[in-house]
Design goal:
With 366 residues, this protein is an alpha/beta fold. The protein folds into two domains: 4-172 and 349-365, Rossmann fold (3-Layer(aba) Sandwich); 182-336, Rossmann fold, CATH 3.40.50. It is built from 16 helices and 13 strands. The chain binds uridine-diphosphate-N-acetylglucosamine (UD1).
Length: 366
């Protein structure tokens, strides 16, 4: 039986690792998998509530790396992964996404000769200014098995010289979680907590360092919040980084007084999915949200100049507006007039991705 260590550490990892753990537990080829939580995110609202909402078990190993510089955070994950691999005989390390925990765990496993499977391999924004882009490229190049959420990701890997034989198109594992939780999320009727009507409000999230760590861009973000809320009420759960930056720039108080703007704490998975599903549209710089809105058929305005998930714009409901208020206004107008594109769902975003991941792990272990 195969022993797999599944690594997660930051908020966007938990919805990807939960279905994989479940699929491995249900498959006779595998010993009970190890759930490794690096502790990159540690607040209740950034971690524990997700474990609860996704039905994740308590971690078998918790590294507690916390918030540090990229170098220190990655180094702590590496050292702790080494200790884990000293303790357990592991056949595979499965990493997901593009956060520092992904890179740290994968790099250590690869150097120890433990095969790495990277879920969500091959995504590229083309922007090396994003720490996630560096994490993606490095992780892909020393992974043994590259698990793709869409076919374009495979083309990126081939261009970088990564053999197609190591790739499997399995679909989007995040949609497995979305489908499982959606009925509960719908029943949560999150919008009612803000006195709003279903489909009568927008949702916004922003946390990328390139958007919130730069004062000028932070101001543009606030401008976009103002122009959006002038058209429809807006709910914005604040990432800790964004709250700190808005406070530091003395901008939080002004925003708190804007009529129709609901600034809230970060939400758990069920509440947020409920909020998103009930919304008329989303404005975001998140990667995951671009995919969730595509699946749900909800218009998404991405406040970035590039995306590593182009399929959400070509097939799905996503449009890149950057931090350009005119572009945002133009798209928003079309959304409000019911003239925005409909969008479709990419192949294999069907809720069975984790089973295909388990099958690929068995195939590549033979
Ligand atoms: C990380 C990921 C990013 C992902 C994001 C989702 C990397 C390089 N970045 O960015 O890809 O989209 O998570 O949230 O791995 N903080 C808390 N509580 C927490 C965690 C963080 O208050 O539980 C605070 C920290 O003190 C810090 C800030 O949030 O000030 C940023 O956290 P950090 O983990 O450095 O990066 P993220 O911006 O969360």
């Amino acid at each position: 039986m195969l022993q797999v260590a599944c690594v997660a550490g930051a908020r966007p990892n938990f919805m990807k690792i939960a279905p994989i753990l479940r699929a491995l537990r249900a498959d006779r080829h595998f010993a009970p998998p190890l759930f490794v939580h690096t502790g990159q995110h540690y607040d209740y609202s950034m971690s524990e509530v997700f474990l609860r909402d996704l039905g994740l078990p308590p971690p078998d190993a918790l590294f507690e790396v916390g918030s540090e510089s990229h170098a220190v955070q990655t180094a702590k994950v590496m050292a702790a992964t080494e200790q884990l691999l000293n303790r357990y005989p592991v056949d595979w390390v499965v990493v997901v996404g593009d956060v520092n925990s992904t890179l740290g765990a994968a790099l250590t496993a690869a150097k120890r000769g433990v095969p790495v499977a990277h879920v969500e391999a091959g995504l590229r924004s083309g922007d090396l200014g994003m720490p996630e882009e560096i994490n993606r490229i490095a992780t892909d190049h020393f992974s043994h098995l590259l698990l793709l959420s869409s076919a374009d990701a495979g083309e990126n890997l081939v261009q970088e010289g990564i053999d197609q034989g190591r790739q499997r198109l399995v679909g989007n594992v995040m949609i497995d979680s979305l489908l499982r939780v959606l009925p509960t999320a719908r029943a949560a009727r999150t919008w009612e907590r803000f006195g709003l009507e279903r489909k009568g409000y927008l949702v916004m999230t922003a946390h990328r360092p390139e958007n919130v760590d730069n004062r000028l861009r932070l101001r543009r973000l606030a401008e976009i919040m103002e122009l959006a809320v002038a058209r429809l009420p807006l709910v914005m759960p604040l990432h800790p980084r964004t709250r700190t930056r808005l406070e530091g720039a003395g901008m939080l108080e002004n925003l708190q007084h804007l009529a129709g703007l609901h600034l809230t704490e970060p939400m758990g998975y069920v509440d947020f999915l409920g909020l998103l599903e009930g919304s008329a549209g989303a404005l975001t710089d998140s990667g995951g949200l671009q995919e969730e809105t595509t699946y749900l058929g909800i218009p998404c305005l991405t406040l970035r100049d590039n995306t590593e998930r182009p399929i959400t714009a070509t097939i799905g409901t996503n449009t890149l507006t950057g931090l350009d208020p005119d572009a945002v206004l133009d798209v928003l107008q079309r959304v409000l007039e019911g003239k925005y594109k409909q969008g479709g769902i990419p192949p294999l975003w069907d809720g069975d991705t984790a089973k295909r991941i388990a099958a690929a792990l068995v195939e590549f272990s033979a």
